[in-house]
Amino acid sequence: MSLGRRRLACLALPALAAGCGASPDPVLYTLQMKPGPVLPSGPRVVRLRDIGLASYLDRREIVRSSADYKLGVMANDWWGEPLGSLLSRTIVLGLSQRLPNSSIYAEGGAITADPTAVLSVNIQRLDLDAAGSLELLAQAAVEFNRPKRSAAKSFRIIKPAPSPNVAGQVAATSDAVAELTDGLAGLLQP
């Protein structure tokens, strides 16, 4: 090999290695809250506790499926913010629209007030089932302070994905979270 070719190879090798190691920028996704029914009553002040999230969902990558004993995780399709925070923010927006006479705030935010009700939500599943539909499994509990009482409910919501790609899954997730929010607003009724 001539000296010129060796120099060219030495210069090209690092550039080639850098090109091979580069991965494409991730695509970031968020949820959109769909409008729901407006309810005339509700607690004056509601605090939404931080969302309890199944550990397998607590990652930046979107989990496509947990079927067949394995996780299907998308390497370059990420949530635009931590999923627990994203769900909290989206549910607060939805509850504020559905309960316009209530003040709704998230536990992790800057606002603190004496709540008349404390809402807790656990998400056990939020991914595609074997048929390709989005499945949301959740539990919710409300502690009312005035008068003192509690209420709880489990939710199983299945939404078909409008397309088989990640964008379709995210759209179905938005629909499922909106339906969950309808149920939470109902649970907050006196």
Short account of what is shown:
With about 190 residues, this protein is of the alpha/beta class. It contains three helices and nine strands. About 5% of the residues have low confidence.
Q: What would you note in describing this structure?
A:
There is one protein chain. This protein is 30% helix and 34% strand. It is of the alpha/beta class and 190 residues long. Strands 2, 3, 6, 7, 8 and 9 form a six-stranded mixed β-sheet that branches. A three-stranded mixed β-sheet has the order 1-5-4, with helices on one face. Helix 2 packs across helix 3. It is elongated. About 3% of the residues have low confidence.
Question: SSE layout and pairings?
Answer:
Elements: H1 3-21, E1 27-29, E2 45-48, E3 52-53, E4 61-65, E5 72-79, H2 83-98, E6 103-106, E7 117-128, E8 133-145, E9 148-160, H3 166-187
Parallel strand pairs: 1-5, 2-6, 2-7, 3-7
Antiparallel strand pairs: 4-5, 7-8, 8-9
Helix pairs in contact: 2-3
Helices, by number, come to 3
Structural class: alpha/beta
Give a short account of the largest sheet: 6 strands, mixed
Radius of gyration, CA atoms, in whole angstroms: 22 Å
Low-confidence stretches: 13-18
Q: What coarse outline follows from CA principal-axis ratios?
A: elongated
How helical, in percent, are the residues? 25-40%
Termini separation comes to 85 Å
Number of E strands: 9
* Helix and strand sequence: HEEEEEHEEEEH
Rounded mean pLDDT score: 89
Strand content: 25-35%
